[in-house]
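Can't attach files on this board, so I'm pasting raw text. These are the components:
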Amino acid sequence: MTDATLSAPPQVTSTTPLIAADGVPLKQKLARTTRRMKMRALFLTLPLVLFLIVSFVLPIGQMLYRSVHNPTGSNVMPNFAVQIENWDGQGLPSDDIIETFVKDMAAARKNREVGKTIGNLATRVNYEIPGSRSLFTKTARRADKITEGPYMAALIEIDKKWDNPNLWLTLQRVTKDFTISFYLAATDRKFDEAGSIVRADELYRIYLPILWKTIWLSALITALCFIIAYPVSYLLSTLPLRTSNLLMILVLLPFWTSLLVRTSAWIAMLQTEGIINNVFVYLGFIDDNQRIQMIYNMTGTVIAMVHILLPFMILPLFSVMKTIPPSYMRAARSMGASGTYSFRKVYFPQTVPGIAAGTLLVFILAIGYYITPALVGGNDGLLISNLIADHIKKTLNWSLGAALGTILLVVVLIFYWLYNKLVGVDNLKFG
Amino acid sequence: MSLAAEQTNNAAHEAHVRFENVQKSYDGEILVVKDLNLDIPAGEFLTMLGPSGSGKTTSLMMLAGFEPATHGEIYLGGQSINNVPPNKRGIGMVFQNYALFPHMSVAENLAFPLKVRKMGRAEIEEKVNRALAMVELPDMGGRRPAQLSGGQQQRVAVARALVFDPELILMDEPLGALDKQLREQMQYEIKHIHENLGVTVVYVTHDQAEALTMSDRIAVFEDGVIQQLSTPDDLYERPQNSFVAQFIGENNKLHGKVSKKSNGVCTVDLDGGGTVTADAINVGAAGDRTTLSLRPERVEIEPEQGSVPNILSGEIKELIYLGDHIRTRMSVAGNDEFIVKVPNNAGNIPLEEGATVRVGWMSEDCRALDPLAP
Ligand SMILES: Nc1ncnc2c1ncn2[C@@H]1O[C@H](COP(=O)(O)OP(=O)(O)OP(=O)(O)O)[C@@H](O)[C@H]1O
Ligand SMILES: [Mg+2]
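---
Top answer:
C-alpha cells for the assembled complex are below.
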C-alpha cells in the first residue's frame, strides 16, 4: 500500500451531517432504506406471527388463565358472592347473607343458561367437598318455598349439613373467581375443613404419581431410543450414500403411516393372542396358557412410543455423524489410540450436539404424548396427558385440566432450563 | 533358506519401509494398485506424485493400516505389518483436512498421542511445548483449532504427527488447502523439520513443483503403477517413459518411426517430415514407432551451422514476453504446440510472429521414448 491511500480521510465533524447526493441527510436516508427492509421482513413473517399468536400464545394464555380463574360460584349466585366475600368466617354467616343465598338459589334454579345453573355450582362445590352434590339440588328445589326468616333455620330444616360453618367457609372460597384449588387438586392437595392446605386422602392421590411416572417413563423411552438409534445412525452415516438413503427411508417409513395405524399394528403384534405371543408359543418359549401381557400396560406404552419417537433421535444423530469425517478416527488411531479409546475421546464427544438435540426432542415429545398411551396403555400405562384429556373431554373439569397442563408445561420448561445449563442450547444440532 | 530369499530379507532389513508385490482392489474388479514394489530407506523424503485417482492415497492408507492390502506384503523396519493394527504401527500422519480434533484445544490435540502412551503430566507438557515451539506456534496451546488460520492448523497437524517421535511420517496432500505463498513457505518448513529430525517421510501430492522442491526421491504414480522412481533432477532430465516426460515439467512431443538404432542412439524419421537423432531410452528396434521428448529450454533458435546435429525449420505462431525469457509457440514437424523458451539475451535476433526460423538441439537433449498416440 502506498502512503497516498493511507492519508487521513476528510475530517467530518458531528455538527455537519453527511449529505447524500440528493441533499437529504445520509442518516435519514439510511433509516428510510432500512425501514423499508424491516417492513418487508415484518410483512413476510406476519402470517407466521399471527398463526403463532392464534394457535399458541392465545391458547396457552387461555389455559393459564383458566387454571386459576373459575367464576362458576359468582355466576350462579352473583349477589351472595358479593356479600359472603366480607364475612369474617366466624360461626355461621348472618341471616342477611343467608337470605341472599336463598334468593340467589331460587333464581338460579330457574336459570337454564350454561354455566349458571345450580348443577354447575353443585359440581364445583363437589370438587371441594365430595358428596355434597345432592345437598345443593335438594335445597334448590325448595328454596322458593322459603319466604321469610330466619333463613338459616329454614335451611337447616331442609338439611342439617347447613349447620356446619366449614360448609360456608367452602362456599366463601368457591364464590371467589380466582382460586388455587385446582393447582392443589393437581398436586394431590386440598383445603381441609378449616381452609388450610393439606395432602389429599391417600385414595385420591393420583396426579403426582402419574406425573412422576410420566417423567421417568419419558426418560426411559428417551434412553431406549438413544441406545437403539446411536448404532443405527452410526451405520447410516458410514454407508455409501445410496445404501444409507435406502435405509433412511426405512427409518422414516413410520412418519408416513398414520399414527393410529402404527399404534394399531402394535396391538396386533403384542396382544395376548397376537403375533409375538403366537410365535413364542409356537417355538415353545412359553406355555399357551401363560401368554405374556405386553400391551394395555406400561410395556405396551414403552414399546410403541420408542418405535414412534425413534426417528426423532436418529435424524439429528445422523446429521451430526454425517459431518464427522472418518479422518478424525483415523488420526486418533494413527496416534496409537485403540478403537474404543478413539471412539470415546474423539468420536463420541463430537456427536454430543446430536445426542443433546435428539434426547431433548424425544423427551419433550414423550412427556406430552397422548394417543399411544391412550390406545395401548391400558390402566397403568396412562400418562399425565391422558388425564388432562379426560378432564377436558369427559369430566369437563377444564380448570383442573388446565392446571395439570400448566404443571406439565412448567416441568418441560424446567427440564429445558436444566438442559441449557448442562449442554447449552446453542450446542444443539437438529440437522 | 535360498539365496534369493536371503537377499529379499536383507533388503527388507535395510529399507525402513518396503512394499513387496502389493496389490489393492476395493471392489474385486479393478486393481487400484497394481504391483507396487518400493523400498524406502530410513531418513528419506519420498514423494508419491501422480494424477488424481492413480492410487497414491490408497498406497499410503495401506502403509498406515487403514486399508488392507489385497495381495503382497508391507514391511516396516524389516517386520511384516500386514496384520498389525494402525494404532500399533507407530506412524505419524498428517491428513489433508488436518483432522485436528475440534473439541480439544491445540495443546490437548498435541497431548493426545502422549496420553495414549500414558506419559506423565510433566513429560507431556514439556513435549507439547517443544512441538509447538518447533512449528513456531508457542502461545497457541490454549486455542481451539477453529480459532487458527489454515496455515496455523497445518502446523499444528504436523506438530501432532511428530510429537510422539515416530520414525515414519505420512502426509497426504497436507498443503492442498493452502494458498500458493503459504504453501511454498510450508514446503520449506516441512523440509527443514525433516532434515533436522531425520525421520522418514512419505509424502503424497499431485503438485509436481512441490514434489520437485521437497523430495529426495519421487515415485511417479499412474494407474496404480509406479512409472518411475528417481531423484527430482533425474525425473526431469532423464524421464524413462513418455508419461513421466509429459507429466513432469514442460515437454515437446515429436512422433516418428525409428529408422536406425545403435549404441544407445537412434535415428528417427518424423511424421511431420525431417530426420533427427536422439538418445534411445525406451524404444524397440528399427521400424518401431516412438515419441521424442524435448525440453523447451534445450531448443536453440537459429543455431550456428554445424553446432547442433538436429536442425528443423519451424513457423512462429505466438510470442509471449515473460521478462526473463520469451515463450515461443511454433509449428515444428507437424506439432503446432512446439514450445521454445528463448532466453532474453542481449544479442538475440528479433522474433516475429509468422516468420519461419530454424530450430536445433543436441541429440542427448532429445529422448526417444515409448510411442504415444499422435
Ligand atoms: N474407499 C474406496 N472404495 C472404492 N474405491 C476407492 C476407494 N478409495 C479410492 N478408491 C478408488 O481407487 C482409485 C485410487 O484412489 P486414490 O484415492 O488412491 O487416488 P489418489 O491417487 O490419492 O488420487 P487424488 O490425487 O485424487 O487424491 C480411484 O479410482 C478411486 O476411485
Ligand atoms: Mg488422494
